[in-house]
Structures are given as structure tokens and as C-alpha cells.
Write a structure and sequence with these properties.
- It comes from Streptosporangium roseum (strain ATCC 12428 / DSM 43021 / JCM 3005 / KCTC 9067 / NCIMB 10171 / NRRL 2505 / NI 9100).
- The protein is an alpha/beta fold.
- It has a domain at 133-402: Rossmann fold.
- It is built from 16 helices and 7 strands.
- It has helices at residues 31-50, 55-70, 83-88, 103-117, 133-140, 143-151, 160-173, 179-182, 202-209, 228-241, 263-275, 278-293, 315-322, 331-339, 350-353, 377-385; strands at residues 199-200, 216-220, 246-250, 296-299, 326-330, 361-366, 397-402.
- It has a 7-stranded mixed sheet, sandwiched between helices.
- Helix 10 (228-241) links the parallel strand 2 and strand 3 (246-250).
- The longest helix has 20 residues, at 31-50.
Length: 403
């Protein structure tokens, strides 16, 4: 199936021939080009410096650096346990230049090859060792996280509506805590938030949670540590204050995009909350109990690491999203996969790109890549007039909902 003619599992077209082309990395100086040519080589070096890998792993990292520098996409190792799966996701890109593949596909494949280089899947001492764990751990124990946890002490004194909006906003702006973004030159630091949103459909989000029956929420997480902590505080609010029946927390099955959350990161963050004392400690204890009772369940579907849009999700994942009162998609990558990583005119209605999705869906995202839609014409005019790269700077955010 060609990437420009994708159909959802229901048969409903997710895109049409009139839609803009997928975003690629073949324009020197563009944001996607800088990720493949600047961010990824820098990340290979940082991963090699952060863990005492032996000579064989370092040679593999050097070979990966040479591959992405030379520009030709190589196949996975012959004995790879998931080679057949990635071949089904290939779409004919292996053997071609990295720049010619869709940006979303090329980024995802790079991270799979990085795991191969560090021996993540191989028998031996590095099997299952997260190459990004040193970065995640440093953030989880940092001063910024401590301040975020202490800020939760002020939430119980707020009116109920203000509590909900505060926790939603903290989860939204927590998406700035993206280690892959920060490791690149010019990445915005957490705390650089602006005061307004480019789009705000939060008035449509809460009715989906507070519907006629106890809600089942699918929460598709993005990053670990500094972002996952406010996500978990929001999940606690959904379960404890809003009476949701259950929350299904989707994370990545393997390390991905530097700081993307995996199951071990969920456990680490719940422990961090529980040990913090104060309001954060209460949240952590409730979440621990919710995981034990099954009201908070962790999912790690293999498609979470697929290099494809959600319009191509497998049937079992489609059925789970269809069963939810609301699916909340966190972060920039999930947004790109949700709407399709295309250079949409920014005023294109959000609902027009997510009509394939099997249930109500909300996006909480700070802008860190080119794709964006659902904005008012006046908002776009004002942002463009500022002369700054508002699409990729991480200083603007949105809440978009298709009920």
C-alpha cells in the first residue's frame, strides 16, 4: 500500500489524492532534514558516551553513524526477531536514501536500528538495557521534577473546575519535557511555556469523560519522567475525582525516541510520586492501588513503535480504542501519527483528518514538528507574523478534540 493512499481498517479513506504529500527530509535546512542530519548523529554519540558499551557495541554505533551519514537505509540484521514485522511496515524504503523516506518512517526506523546497535535484543549483557535510561533517570531525580511534585500540594485548595484545568494544563505543557528535543540544538527547555494555546477544545474533553456511564479512558502516553508525572496526576484525577471506571495507559514496548515511556518508566514514576510525600505521595499511593485493582492498566502494543500513522492500526488496537469513552493522545509524535505526517494547511479542520478513528479522540500536544491543523486563520496570521519557527520551537501548544 502506498503511503500516499492509506486506508483505515474500516475501509474509510484516511487520506485522499487531494491531501498534501507526506513530509520528507530531502530539503536541506528544513526541520526534518536537521533531525536526520544533525540530531540523530549527535544522539548516537551521546548514547555511546552515556553507557560503558564494549568495543563490539561501539563498532556497531559507528556503523550506524556511517549508514545515516552515507544516506542509504540498510536492512535489519538477518536474525532479528521482528524482521518480518518491519518488512511488513517497510513500504519499499529499505535500500533507498534516508532523505527520500517519509520523515515519520525514517525517524522510527532509526530508533529500531539504534536498539540493534546497542545489543538491546541480542543475548548477552546488554539485552534489555535501555540506552536512554541515564537521561530519563537524571530528569526523574532532577530539581525540575521536585518543583512539579511540590506544586501538586496547591491543587486540593482549588475549586473543582480549576483543579481539572490545572492538571490538564500541567499534562499538556509537560510535553515540553522531551529529552530528544532538548538534546538537539535550540530545543526549548521545560518552563518556556507561553500563556495561550493555538487551539483549545478542553470544553469538549470533559463531557466525554463525564458521560452518562463511568468512562473507560485510553491514555496514549508520550515521554517518561518529567512528562509522565503530570500525566499520571491527570490520570489519578480521572479515576479519583471524575469517577472513571478504568484508564488504559498505552506506552511503548521498547525504548523509542529517547524519552518515550516504557512500562518500567511507569513503575519508576509511580514510585517517585509515592516517595515524594504531600499531595504527590497521595496520588502515587492511589495509582499504585489502581494498578493492583486493574482500574489503571498498562498496555504496550507493538504498533506503538510502528513507523506508520494510526490510520493503519491493527484490528485489536482499533477495537480497544473503539471501546473507550475517550482516547487521549499525548505529544508530538502521537499527533503526527494521528492526523498523518503531512504538510496540512494549518486551517484544515482537525476532524477531517481523524474521521477514521474508531471513537472520540483528543490530542494534547506542544508543537515540535511541522505538521499542524485545526487552527483559526487569525491565529495562523498572528503566528506567521512573529517571524519565529512556532511550529517546531516547543513554545506553543494545542488541545484538540473530536467528540
Amino acid at each position: 500500500m502506498a503511503d500516499d493512499d492509506v486506508r483505515g481498517r474500516s475501509g474509510e479513506p484516511a487520506v485522499t489524492s487531494g491531501d498534501p504529500p507526506v513530509i520528507r527530509s530531502d530539503v536541506p535546512g528544513s526541520f526534518p532534514w536537521s533531525v536526520l542530519h544533525d540530531r540523530h548523529p549527535a544522539l548516537i554519540r551521546k548514547v555511546g558516551d552515556a553507557t560503558p558499551y564494549g568495543p563490539d557495541r561501539r563498532r556497531a554505533l559507528d556503523l550506524l553513524l556511517r549508514e545515516i551519514t552515507d544516506g542509504v537505509i540498510g536492512p535489519l540484521e538477518r536474525a532479528a526477531h521482528d524482521r518480518e514485522l518491519w518488512e511488513s511496515w517497510d513500504r519499499g524504503h529499505v535500500g533507498r536514501r534516508w532523505d527520500d523516506a517519509p520523515f515519520l518512517w525514517a525517524e522510527s526506523y532509526f530508533y529500531r536500528k539504534l536498539l540493534a546497535a546497542v545489543g538491546y535484543f541480542d543475548p548477552g549483557p546488554w539485552r534489555g538495557v535501555d540506552p536512554f535510561e541515564p537521561f530519563k533517570q537524571a530528569e526523574l531525580l532532577g530539581k525540575g521534577v521536585e518543583a512539579e511534585l511540590r506544586a501538586l500540594d496547591g491543587v486540593p485548595g482549588m475549586p473543582p473546575g480549576e483543579q481539572a484545568q490545572t492538571l490538564l494544563q500541567r499534562a499538556l505543557w509537560g510535553n515540553q519535557a522531551d529529552l530528544g528535543f532538548r538534546l538537539s540544538a535550540g530545543g526549548a527547555q521545560a518552563g518556556g511555556r507561553t500563556t495561550g494555546l493555538t487551539a483549545d477544545d478542553s470544553d469538549l474533553l470533559w463531557p466525554a469523560v463525564d458521560g452518562p456511564r463511568p468512562a473507560r479512558i485510553c491514555f496514549v502516553a508520550d515521554n517518561a519522567a518529567g512528562e509522565l508525572l503530570p500525566d499520571l496526576a491527570l490520570i489519578d484525577h480521572l479515576l479519583h475525582a471524575r469517577g472513571a471506571r478504568e484508564v488504559l495507559l498505552h506506552v511503548k514496548p521498547t525504548p523509542y525516541y529517547v524519552s518515550d515511556a516504557v512500562p518500567a518508566d511507569v513503575i519508576a514514576c509511580v514510585r517517585r510520586l509515592s516517595a515524594a510525600g504531600g499531595r504527590a505521595g497521595e496520588v502515587g499511593e492511589r495509582l499504585w492501588g489502581a494498578m493492583g485493582s486493574g482500574r489503571l492498566a498498562v498496555r504496550a502494543h507493538v504498533f506503538s513503535c510502528a513507523p506508520l500513522p494510526y490510520s493503519e492500526m491493527p484490528e485489536d488496537l482499533r477495537e480497544e480504542f473503539a471501546s473507550a469513552s475517550l482516547t487521549i493522545m499525548k505529544g508530538d509524535l502521537n499527533y503526527r501519527r494521528l492526523v498523518g505526517d503531512r504538510m496540512w494547511p494549518p486551517t484544515t479542520p482537525f476532524a477531517s483528518a481523524v474521521g477514521y478513528f474508531p471513537g472520540p479522540v483528543a490530542a494534547l500536544r506542544t508543537l515540535k514538528s511541522d505538521v499542524v491543523m485545526g487552527l483559526g486563520a487569525d491565529v495562523v496570521t498572528e503566528l506567521d507574523a512573529g517571524g519565529r519557527p512556532w511550529r517546531t520551537s516547543g513554545t506553543h501548544a494545542l488541545i484538540q478534540v473530536r467528540p
